[in-house]
Amino acid sequence: MVRRSKYFLILILSLLLLFISLRDSFIIVKGGSMEPSLYHNDFLITYPKAPNEIEIGEIVVISSARYYIENGGAPQFSAFNNNTKIIHRVINKKEINGTWFFLTKGDNNILIDGSIICINRSQNYSLFEYNASEGVYIPEIAIESVMLFKIPLLGYVQDFALLILMGVGFFFLFFYLKKKKSNIFRLKSQEIVLKTLNRINLFLYFSFILFLSIIIFIHMNNDIFYMNNNTLAPIFYEDDLLVRENVAPEMILVNDIVIIESPKYFYEQGFDPIFWDFYPNSSYIIHRVIEKKKVNNTWFFITQGDQSPWKPDGNFKTIEKIGNYDYFKFELNETNKVFINQEAIIGVIKFKIPILSIISKNSILIFSTYTLLISVISLKIKLMKRRTLKT
C-alpha cells in the first residue's frame, strides 16, 4: 500500500510539473460567442503557429482587444477589456509589407470583431458605422496561438477546485487511517463495517433530501433570480443567485441595482436588438439606476450595466441598415435620454447567494452523483448482509 501511495504521489507531482510547464498552452473558454463549436468552460490545448501558416477557418487565441482599437475599432464596443484573451475564428487574412493581418469573428456573433468605427463625434453626439465588407484586421502579433483540440467542459474543474481538493484530502485521509489501523479499520468485524456503511448511507439520504429542498426552494421562490450576464462585474457575475425586494418606485434610489422586466421597454424606443445580441423580450435585465425623475405622479428611470458598452441603456439608435446587418449606421445622442417608466421595474436586488447558484446550476450532476453513491453503498450493504447470513 505504501508503494502504491508513493507511485500515486509521483504521478500527481508529474502531472503538476507538466501543467506548470505547459500552462501557457491551456485556455478555458468563457462565454458563448463560439457556440456551437466551443462552449463555456471547454478546455483548449493550443500551440504557437507561424502567421503565414495560419489558415482561414482556424480558431485562434487573440492576446488582447486593444489590437482592434489600435487598428480603427471604436473602443466602447469591445466586449472585452485589454487583459482578456479572445478565442475566435479567422475568417479572412491578408499580407501587407511582409506582415500578416487577420479578420476574426465569433461563430455565434453576427458582427465581425472590432469592426464598429466612429465616423463623427462632437460633445454630446457620436455617429458609428459597421460595414462587414470593411472589417478591422488585426496584425499577426495579436495572434497568441492556435487551437489544437478541446476537452469539453473540463474547465468546470476550475470552478469546483475546492470540492475536488476536499475529495482528494478525504481520499488520503481514508488511506492514512487505514495505514494507522484506526479502531474502525482494525476491527474487521462485519458488524462494524455494516454500521459504518449504514451511517454513510443515512447521511447521504438526509443530505440528498436537503439538496432537493434547496433546488425546489430556488425554483419555487419568485424573489430569486439568476444574474444572466457579466455587465455588473465584479459586483455580480453571470449565474450568481440574487434575491430581490419589492420596493415602491419612489423608494428606488440612484445606484440601486434593479430588475427590468423585459428589454422591450428599450426596443420600443428605437434601441436595436442587435446591441444586446437579440436578447428576447421574455427575459429580464439586471442593471443599475443612474438617474430618475417624476412626471405626473409616475417615476421614470435611466439604467445601465457598469461593464456594458451600450450605456446608458437604450440610448443608441439605428438610423440606416442594409441586409442582415451587413451594413448599418447608428448614433448616440446624449441629449436624448431614454427613460423607462416605473412599470418596467419589478424589484431591487438586495444581496446575492454565492454557493446556492453552483448547486442549482449543476443540479443534474449533483443528482447523478448522489444516485450513484447511494446505489453503490446500498448494493455493498446488501452483499455484506448476504455473506453474513451464509456464515
Textual characterization of the structure:
This protein is of the alpha+beta class and 391 residues long. It has two domains: 2-154, no CATH class; 189-391, no CATH class. The protein is 32% helix and 28% strand. The chain contains nine helices and 18 strands. The chain has helices at residues 2-22, 66-70, 156-159, 161-180, 183-186, 190-220, 264-267, 354-361, 363-390, and strands at 26-28, 43-47, 59-62, 86-96, 99-105, 116-121, 125-131, 138-139, 143-151, 224-226, 241-245, 257-260, 285-295, 298-304, 316-322, 327-333, 340-341, 345-353. The strands form three sheets. A seven-stranded antiparallel beta sheet has the order 1-2-9-3-4-5-8, with no helix packed on it.
Biggest sheet, spatial arrangement of strands: 1-2-9-3-4-5-8
Number of helices: 9
- Give me the strand/helix succession: HEEEHEEEEEEHHHHEEEHEEEEEEHH
Evaluate the radius of gyration: 28 Å
Q: Strand-residue fraction?
A: 25-35%
Features:
single chain; 391 residues; alpha+beta; 2 domains; seven-stranded antiparallel beta sheet; 28% strand
